[in-house]
């Protein structure tokens, strides 16, 4: 059997004495001279010599799989009191800590010696724009002739090649092992997308980033965090000395201003970025001019008089903001404005499509697939589409099951505000009744005054591929189609059954079927 995360491990085998692990956990251990050579939380990923962290999960406890882990070669088990009660007698030492998940990153950092890394490390967090900003950052670093690794939700890269993984968000043990792998590959930088889930569950523990960037904060993930204040508090953990040395914060709204204040109070060297006029900030986006479906812009630094002119080829003001944040973060790490301008002029780093992020499938009609799955992301995507079309705007979207239900009607309201044709379909229903989810969304759509005035055609259509075909069949060459919600995803979860479904593939096929042949070449596949 192929090990599930062998591709995330460095080639050189690390080693740490169990006594060192015992000291980090502040708990006693037998066989303290025993050497461990790796760390994992997945019994299926255990390699000979590993520490197995048996952690509590949403449905099961990792201690239930300890026998399997030992059979695969685990030399010691780290768990909590609940796991200790589950464990049978084992022939390997068992270390019991109050909160082993919190300490996993610290142990992994010592195991893989990542605290000694010479890499410049960049983290990006926020509700929307994380993925695009990390792709822009990596492209910009490449333009500066710097080899960079990437850890993100749609791709991981070890500095030499993409890294296959079964995970969307790696555990702390895998973050550190992949960072060690990047060191082996002589990368000089690492870029990471840091979600609120990664912060909540300690997946960046033991790692201090050179520069942390903040995009925005809008309603999402309240099923996990409960309120916007709690959501903010989790994001704010990144902007402390425990996780970052400096910060670049987008201050276009009050949440950004609050985050900048928090970062400064925490002792971080903090720079601010404004992409809207009339806001005082260390970096300011100015002179935005339409360029194709994208925009040219200038990033000004008033304190130094520096200006960097760049072009972003993806639609929307928010992609200007993403590109500007990438520039500002690299500038904050010490790269001169002149050097950045040469890199931008030579390599045009913001030209590349990001899989499923405002990905352009066709221009006539303008057909775009985007990951927008919360109200603000949908609003921004629709604004960028409607501002560039002379025809009608056709929107295909749904809402995810078993997630924050409060945003469903709000998304429906946003849809009816901007689109001329709203096609409500299924996203990932998971275990919920898809028809019930659609009704929640339609309640928001139908409550909008534009619908009452007959200004919006409202259609309910499922399955999703049928909805995408209906959008293509309704379009004329001057119209715009936005398929929102799933972006790069290729599997749809309906009642626990995985169905192959890629919005980009379906959109291309639908346009071809109804007679539109001038399609854009497929972008980078995830």
The strand order across the widest sheet is 9-8-10-7-11-12-13-14-15-16
Label the structural class: alpha/beta
Mean pLDDT figure: 92
Shape type: globular
Q: Portion of residues in helices?
A: 25-40%
Number of strands: 24
- Helical segment count: 18
User: What kind of assembly state do the chains in view correspond to?
Assistant: single chain
What does this structure look like?
The strands form five sheets. The chain has a ten-stranded mixed sheet, sandwiched between helices. With 526 residues, it is of the alpha/beta class. It is built from 18 helices and 24 strands. The chain is globular, with a radius of gyration of 24 Å.
Task: Note the main attributes of this structure.
526 residues; alpha/beta; 6-stranded mixed beta sheet
Question: Could you write a compact summary of the structure shown?
Answer:
The protein is an alpha/beta fold and about 525 residues long.
What is the secondary structure topology, with strand pairs?
Elements lengths: L15 E2 H8 L9 E2 L1 E3 L9 E5 L11 H6 L4 E4 L1 H6 L7 E3 L3 H13 L7 E6 L4 H14 L4 E4 L4 E2 L14 H13 L4 E5 L2 H5 L10 E4 L7 H4 L2 H9 L9 E5 L3 H12 L3 E6 L8 E9 L2 E8 L4 E7 L4 H16 L4 H11 L11 E5 L2 E5 L4 H12 L6 E5 L9 H12 L2 E4 L9 H13 L2 H4 L4 E4 L3 H11 L5 E5 L6 E4 L2 E4 L2 H11 L13
Parallel strand pairs: 3-4, 4-5, 5-6, 7-10, 7-11, 8-10, 11-12, 12-13, 13-14, 18-22, 19-20, 19-22, 20-21
Antiparallel strand pairs: 1-2, 8-9, 14-15, 15-16, 17-18, 23-24
Helix pairs in contact: 4-6, 5-11, 13-14, 14-15, 17-18
């Amino acid at each position: 059997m192929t090990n599930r995360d062998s591709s995330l491990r460095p080639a050189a085998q690390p080693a740490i004495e169990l006594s060192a692990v015992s000291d980090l956990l502040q708990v006693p251990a037998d066989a303290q001279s025993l050497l461990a050579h790796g760390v994992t939380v997945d019994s299926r990923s255990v390699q000979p010599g590993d520490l197995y962290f048996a952690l509590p999960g949403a449905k099961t406890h990792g201690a239930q799989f300890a026998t399997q882990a030992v059979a695969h070669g685990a030399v010691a088990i780290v768990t909590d009191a609940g796991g200790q009660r589950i464990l049978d007698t084992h022939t390997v030492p068992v270390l019991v800590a109050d909160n082993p998940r919190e300490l996993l990153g610290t142990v992994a950092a010592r195991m893989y010696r990542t605290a000694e890394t010479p890499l410049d490390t960049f983290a990006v967090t926020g509700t929307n724009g994380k993925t695009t900003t990390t792709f822009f950052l990596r492209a910009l670093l490449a333009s500066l002739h710097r080899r960079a690794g990437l850890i993100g939700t749609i791709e991981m890269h070890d500095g030499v090649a993409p890294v296959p993984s079964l995970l969307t968000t790696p555990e702390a043990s895998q973050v550190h092992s992949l960072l060690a792998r990047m060191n082996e590959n002589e990368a000089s930088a690492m870029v990471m997308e840091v979600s609120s889930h990664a912060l909540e569950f300690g997946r960046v523990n033991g790692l201090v980033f050179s520069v942390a960037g903040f995009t925005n904060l809008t309603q999402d993930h309240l099923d996990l965090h409960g309120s916007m204040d709690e959501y903010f508090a989790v994001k704010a953990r990144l902007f402390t000395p425990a996780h970052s040395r400096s910060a670049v914060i987008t201050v276009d709204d009050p949440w950004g201003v609050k985050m900048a204040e928090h970062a400064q109070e925490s002792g971080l060297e903090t720079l601010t970025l404004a992409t809207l006029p009339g806001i005082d900030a260390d970096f300011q986006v100015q002179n935005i001019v339409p360029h194709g479906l994208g925009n040219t812009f200038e990033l000004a630094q008033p304190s130094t008089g520096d200006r960097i002119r760049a072009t972003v080829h993806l639609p929307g003001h928010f992609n200007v903001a993403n590109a500007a944040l990438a520039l500002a973060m690299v500038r904050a790490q010490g790269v001169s404005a002149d050097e950045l301008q040469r890199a931008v002029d030579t390599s045009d780093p913001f030209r590349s499509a990001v899989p499923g992020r405002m990905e352009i499938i066709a221009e006539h009609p303008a057909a775009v697939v985007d990951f927008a799955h919360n109200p603000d992301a949908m609003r921004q995507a629709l604004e960028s589409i409607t501002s560039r079309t002379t025809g009608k705007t056709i929107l295909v979207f749904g809402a995810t099951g078993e997630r924050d239900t409060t945003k469903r009607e709000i998304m429906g309201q946003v849809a009816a505000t901007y689109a001329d044709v709203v096609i409500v379909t299924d996203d990932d229903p998971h275990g919920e009744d898809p028809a019930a989810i659609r009704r929640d969304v339609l309640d928001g759509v139908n409550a909008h005054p534009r619908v009452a005035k007959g200004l919006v055609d409202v259609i309910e259509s499922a399955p999703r591929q049928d909805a995408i075909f209906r959008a293509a069949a309704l379009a004329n060459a001057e119209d715009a189609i936005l398929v929102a919600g799933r972006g790069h995803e290729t599997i749809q979860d309906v009642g626990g059954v995985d169905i192959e479904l890629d919005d980009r593939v379906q959109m291309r096929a639908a346009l071809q079927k109804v007679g539109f042949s001038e399609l854009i070449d497929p972008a980078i596949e995830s």
